[in-house]
Amino acid sequence: MSVQAVVACLPQDWREATLVGRIQTAEGPAVIVVRKGRVQDVTSAASTVADLMRDWNGEGPQGRDLGDLEEFDFAANKLLTPVDLQVIKAAGVTFAVSAVERVIEERARGDASRAEQIRQDLRERVGSDIRSVQPGSDAAARLKEALIADGLWSQYLEVAIGPDAEIFTKAPILSAVGHGGQIGVRSDSSWNNPEPEVVLVVDRKGRTLGATLGNDVNLRDFEGRSALLLSKAKDNNASCSIGPFIRIFDDGFTVDDVRSARVDLEIQGKDNYRLEGHSSMDQISRDPLDLVTQAQSEHHFPDGFVLFLGTLFAPTQDRDAPGKGFTHKVGDVVRISSPRLGLLENEVTTSKDAPPWQFGVSDLMRNLAGRGLLKAESAQ
User: Fold this and answer.
1) pLDDT of residue 59
2) DSSP summary character for residue 113
3) Any coiled-coil ranges, and where (predicted)?
């Protein structure tokens, strides 16, 4: 990837931002921090991004200066996804429109041709009510009772307006692809879509330290047939992308910027099909930090975790036959962007044809050990 392509994916105010990323060097993965536009290799101080986040003190360690980002050789040092040992978690059904679409999937049993009629039947009755209630509130409980009485209750509405959010594990550690990589949908899926989202980065102590962009690729036909197929709908080779960089929270960029962020989506197909949409984070049903708390629950994440916050975007625009809605085709280019987080771009292929995920945790540990980058520490 050229340096021009990397610069084009940066936040608008990137020279005022602190960015954390990973690059693939000739020796192996390296952790970089970009401060005031200059790139530093901090791998000798923090061999993984998880370690960097664990010890983040507001500035992070100083490292070997690699020069100005606009002059860095990204062709020889490929940009990787900016997370490594963190568990990849995701929150679902966090927007009203998303909740209604999940109910539609469930009622259509994964059949896209039935979706539009069900959508028309449900939109006014459920959509207008669900937008006005706070999840877990007395008003939400009353709405639940009314929907049950009408025969309209769904497990998706339970997590949309009930006290407990839907939190699931999206992908294995180290399996996400970064900016410029190929994303995959199962070759046997006929109804699927991207999910453009903000992703929060949380350290082992539960501190929310920064944010990035993500694509929680989703198979609507599989999940629509049964919610018990969630892992098959969500966790496939190359089905998760994160990047381009983690933007660290500081005086100039805070969680309030996440709360008010606009996330834009553009899909360009080889068939000249074009789709645009966006998510406005101010319409999220649950506060981002509440979702972080629910993700932590009673679990322990010694290397921290990242959390997809969900999406407002649910594509319904027909692509081929009327009433069939949207689904991906091989060669689609998906661009997810937000002014203060940058641009995440990926090309769609099938999970079968995407480069296989082969560099796992044991491979990383052997690589770091061979480079003398693992430090012995007392048990904590």
Assistant:
1) 82
2) G
3) none
